[in-house]
Design brief:
This protein is of the alpha+beta class. The chain is built from 7 helices and 18 strands. Strands 5, 6, 7, 8, 9, 10, 11, 12, 13, 14, 15, 16, 17 and 18 form a 14-stranded antiparallel sheet that branches. Strand 10 and strand 11 (261-264) form a beta hairpin. The chain is globular and about 55 Å long. The termini are far apart. The model is unreliable at 1-20 (pLDDT under 50).
Length: 450
């Protein structure tokens, strides 16, 4: 059921006036964290019929090996049922418009639904930070965040913008080094893979820091090297993402091997197409959503119970080949796993006087992790155009929840893009971290020329 529906007039006033939202939760609300609410702000209890269980701490921290990777904790389970075009109406109450469109879009599409497991878990330092955020974080307008560190800024959100900031500030680790390969898939199932090596230092996600430790306003540093295909190899992208983007916009640079120089790239944001998606994805669709919120009006629509891709450990198997994942029209749904979970629903509509290729979007955020797990994207005619899915797992060696695979479907042209095809690469290193000196334009110039 939906709850906490906020008047549109109130949200519009907050967004357009640019005043500080009254985001600090009162003491009695903060006290609920770790009680009837989980430390991350989710409803701790099971749903009415028990099909969504109570949260009991999630998966425990556990080491992984390069040979085995992330062992599936529920590998022996069988689907409770499979949703197909023939029975989709029976389950439509728990499906998003984008999910229902998939059954019209491709014959043979199916969604295997398994028992639900609330596996989200995080280090205690993250829970401590989130509780402090509930007391201290503030959001001015849509993009000026203050008083938050290390985890979701608003565990008890009062607006759609706050909920989206929870996704942006979700905890993954303080750094990542690894491959994040993507494939653009034609309607017939032909594809090419862009092999990308990425380095990320998340200054915000350091455990134990205080808001004053982020006085330089840097949220994260992001550096990617494109290794293949040949026509894209050698391209380098560097981003300094800011916390308060009203105070200081994000900074980005690109290195092009043909030009052999580094240049500023202010176009790396909003609805500009990303390099490795052949225009099937926009920059603010990376990681399901990132970047500034200022082109949209954000409405917190409440909670709903939805079948979402969850505990998708099969898609993270170390010996899985891209040919086993990629099929015409959609990924191999036999490898997927859907579970019934509560999600926060946030509607975004383009503000008057601004523009974006998506006139409106609806975001679905997993209540236990604040990770966006699905997005419905509408064109200028208000027609459903594209749909995104993030197939989540708990990377329990951290522990933290993130997507094993992200998929974006285009309903008009029958193509899709899938990111996270790193199964046969070296496993991601979540302990990696470098300071600002690693992420400078001069540093990428040296790397690009070598």
């Amino acid at each position: 059921m939906f709850r906490r529906v906020f008047p549109l007039s109130l949200l519009t006033t907050l967004l357009l006036a640019g005043v500080a939202a009254q985001a600090k939760a009162p003491p009695e609300e903060v006290a609920r964290l770790g009680q009837d609410l989980t430390p991350m702000g989710a409803t701790q209890a099971a749903n009415a019929d028990g099909s969504i269980p109570a949260w009991e701490g999630g998966l425990e921290h556990k080491a992984v090996t390069p040979e085995e990777g992330y062992v599936h904790p529920f590998a022996d389970e069988k689907p409770l049922f499979v949703i197909t075009a023939e029975n989709v109406q029976e389950y439509s109450e728990h499906l998003t418009p984008g999910q229902k469109k998939m059954f019209e879009y491709r014959s043979g599409y199916r969604m295997p639904v398994y028992p639900s497991h609330r596996t989200a878990s995080y280090p205690q330092g993250v829970y401590d930070a989130v509780k402090a955020n509930a007391q201290n974080a503030e959001l001015s307008g849509t993009d000026s965040l203050s008083g938050a560190v290390t985890g979701p800024a608003f565990p008890i959100p009062q607006s759609g913008a706050e909920a989206l900031w929870n996704h942006k500030t979700k905890y993954v680790s303080r750094g990542i080094k690894g491959y994040y390969n993507a494939a653009v898939v034609s309607e017939s199932g032909q594809y090419f893979i862009s092999r990308v090596l990425r380095y990320v230092s998340l200054k915000y996600n350091q455990i134990g820091i205080q808001p004053e430790d982020l006085k330089d306003n840097v949220f994260l540093y992001y550096l990617t090297y494109v290794l293949s295909p040949t026509r894209l190899a050698g391209n380098i992208v560097l981003v300094h993402q800011m916390i308060d983007q009203l105070k200081e916009p994000n900074m980005a640079w690109v290195y092009n091997p043909g030009q052999r120089r580094v240049r500023r790239a202010p176009e790396l944001g909003y609805d500009n197409p990303t390099l490795a998606t052949d225009s099937l994805g926009t920059h603010d669709q990376i990681d399901m959503f990132n970047g500034a919120l200022d082109r949209y009006q954000w409405t917190l629509a409440g909670k709903k119970e939805i079948y979402i891709p969850y505990n998708a450990y099969t898609l993270e198997k170390r010996d899985l080949d891209p040919d086993e994942i990629i099929q015409p029209g959609h990924i191999n749904q036999d490898l997927t796993r859907y579970e019934l979970h509560r999600v926060w629903v946030v509607d975004a509509t383009v503000l008057p006087g601004t523009n974006h290729v998506y006139k409106r979007r609806t975001f679905y955020l997993d209540e236990d992790s604040w990770h966006i797990v699905a997005v419905d994207c509408y064109d200028q005619r208000d027609q459903l155009w594209r749909m995104q899915e993030g197939h989540l797992i708990n990377f329990y060696d951290v522990p933290a929840v993130s997507a094993a695979l992200e998929v974006g479907y285009d309903f008009e042209i029958g193509r899709y893009v899938v990111a996270g095809l790193d199964n046969q690469e070296t496993m991601p290193d979540f302990s990696w971290y470098e300071d600002a000196s690693f992420f400078t334009p001069s540093a990428i110039r040296r790397h690009g020329i070598q």
